[in-house]
Amino acid sequence: MEEEEAAEEQQRFSYRQRLKAAVHYTVGCLCEEVASDKEMQFSKQTIAAISEVTFRQCENFAKDLEMFARHAKRSTINTEDVKLLARRSNSLLKYITEKSEEIAQVNLERKAKKKKKSENENKDSLEPAEAGVVESEN
Amino acid sequence: MEGTCAGFRKELVSKLLYLHFKDDKTKVSGDALQLMAELLKIFVVEAAIRSIWQAQAEDLALVDLDQLEKVLPQLLLDF
After folding, report:
1. CA–CA distance from B52 to each of A13, A38, A126 (Å)?
2. pLDDT for the residue A125
3. pLDDT recorded at residue A117
4. What is d(CA B65, CA A90) in angstroms, rounded to the nearest whole number?
5. In terms of CA atoms, which chain A residue is nearest residue B71?
6. Which among A55, A79, A92 has CB closest to B31?
7. Distance separating alpha carbons of residues A131 and B23, to the nearest angstrom
């Protein structure tokens, strides 16, 4: 039994490590962009530290989001919960609210496109039949 | 400035969040995931930019841990 637990523990640990590595990669990428734009350089330790802080901040975010949704008697976290997360800074809240509207808009347009496409396909198959009905009534 | 780095992938953000949920029933909507990806991106960019400003104020060309440490408290308070 103990061996199984130890193996599970090991698996969880390496999963965590893989996630941390993925975060580190993205953080490095973003910092590199900012650095080259400002013509400055980050030490490797600084990038690693930002990556570590980001990973830990995710834990706080996740727990808060879960609490917010639960407080609203939901089990699915939605964009309102995320906006609540961004409440501490006015400019952050404004930015996130704008992004949220952008995302909603893009998804709305995507749905409208899909619906229009399937409507057009249905229309093409219906038209001849409808024309037939009208003529016979006359 | 053209963004060559798209930021955090939805899949990564999802895994990061699910890692810390207490309840098995908790889920995240697609839109919320996209928004969280933006939030995390802003978090990282703010950390980077504020550290750079600190380094520039100290007349340094390299941004090191000392500069990050000075901006970290306010960063965490803002989030």
Report:
1. 33, 8, 63
2. 60
3. 84
4. 28
5. A50
6. A79
7. 57
Distance CA A90, CA A101 (A): 17
Q: Is the dihedral of CA A62, A66, A71, A76 positive or negative?
A: positive
Nearest CA to A42 out of B44, B63, B61 is that of B63
Q: What are the tokens at B76? A: 């965490």
Strand residue runs (E) in chain B:
27-28, 62-63
CB contact under 8 A, A79 and B15: no
According to the model, what pLDDT value does residue A134 have?
A: 47
**Cα distances (angstroms) measured from residue A77 to each of A62, A65, A111, B31, B76:** 10, 7, 21, 10, 23
Question: What does the alpha-carbon distance between residue A58 and residue A134 come to, in Å, rounded to a whole number?
Answer: 63
Half-sphere exposure for A30 (CA within 13 Å, toward CB): 28
Block mean pLDDT (10 aa), chain A, length 138: 88 95 97 96 97 97 97 97 95 96 92 85 61 47
Query: Is B57 near chain A, with CB under 8 Å?
Result: no
Name the nearest CA neighbour of A77 among B10, B65, B31.
Answer: B31
Which residues between 39 and 78 in chain A have a beta carbon less than 8 angstroms from any beta carbon of chain B? 40-43, 45-46, 49-50, 53-55, 57-59, 61-63, 65-66, 69-70, 75-78
Site of tokens 């895994």: B15
